[in-house]
Design goal:
It is built from one helix and 29 strands. With 305 residues, the protein is mainly β. The termini are far apart.
Length: 305
């Protein structure tokens, strides 16, 4: 007695039909879509950006390819790209003020079999592209001594931007939305550091910078003052200060005892003098990092008047 309601022939036909249905439903087996659109595009004055799709067919029975893109919820046809076979482009004019777009590609086509054309569709996942209105063109130079003023040229700089050397923030000056300056920090000389611009929207790679060794001599080598008394302090560079000048970032462990201005050698200067005034009585040192063996220390003592 037969307990199986399907004969072997019927089972074969059923299996064949299921396999054929799966082949028809799985468009990716006959058509492969590759999104070649960059994830970030640099803002341009026209606000027109190109989306690119590669379509590869795995069967000669595929006909009537109709690549399309859905961006901002609108469906648009794509044109064949002059850059190669199987490439399709769409140029989209982005509305003013937009900095991010969601889109996906889809391709309508037909598969021919036994004289019958069966409509099919393949599509990609939804992706996003960012319109970048901030970018770095170049560092003015890629090496220099501690204290040198260096320019970064680009676009989209803001007052919130900070230059970082290997993750450490350095003194940064905004010149304009197209120029950002920084003073080479008093870090170890003879090394190359990765330079980033850290802003509210994330980090932007600005390249690498090598800190070259240099020396500074200080005269006098120590200070003894009374409260209110003044004395000149002279810093002499090994080489003339470069364009932009050289910042000598003097710090102290007795800030209440020392009154002195910022020390900046103007372009071309080899020495700069400042007046140091005694504040509250105290004993400590002035420090200048990044020169010579790494740090210069000038002992200072302030006595009561």
């Amino acid at each position: 007695m037969h307990t199986n309601p399907f004969s072997p022939a019927r089972k074969f036909l059923a299996g064949f039909g299921l396999a054929a249905a799966l082949m028809l439903l799985s468009g990716c087996e006959t058509v492969t879509l590759t999104d070649l659109t960059p994830k970030t595009m640099v803002e341009n004055p026209s606000n027109i950006y190109t989306f690119t799709l590669r379509v590869a067919t795995r069967s000669s029975t595929v006909t009537g390819l109709d690549p399309r893109i859905v961006v901002d919820g609108q469906n648009h046809g794509m044109k064949k790209s002059p850059l190669g076979e199987g490439l399709y482009d769409f140029e989209y004019q982005v509305p003013a003020g937009r900095d991010r777009l969601a889109y996906y590609f889809l391709v309508n086509y037909s598969v021919e079999g036994n004289g019958v054309l069966t409509p099919q569709e393949s599509y990609t996942q939804v992706n996003q592209v960012a319109i970048e209105n901030r970018y770095v063109t170049r560092l003015q130079v890629n090496r220099g001594p501690v204290g040198a003023l260096i320019s970064v040229v680009g676009r989209g700089f803001t007052p919130q931007d900070t230059i970082q050397f290997d993750g450490a923030s350095v003194r940064t000056v905004l010149v304009s939305p197209n120029e950002l300056n920084f003073f080479v920090p008093p870090l170890d000389a003879g090394r190359t550091y990765k330079v980033l611009i850290r802003g509210t929207t994330g980090n932007t790679d600005a390249g690498v910078f090598r800190i070259d060794p240099t020396t500074v001599t200080v005269n006098p080598t120590s200070l003894a003052l009374r409260t209110g008394e003044r004395q000149p302090l002279t810093f002499t560079l090994a080489n003339p200060a470069p364009a932009g000048g050289t910042l000598l970032d003097v710090t102290t462990d007795v800030p209440d005892s020392v009154i002195m201005p910022e020390v900046i050698a103007k372009p071309g200067q080899m020495s700069v003098s400042v007046t140091v005034e005694g504040g509250r009585p105290g004993k400590g040192s002035l420090f200048l990092k990044g020169f010579g063996t790494g740090e210069i220390s000038i002992p200072i003592e302030v006595s009561p008047r």
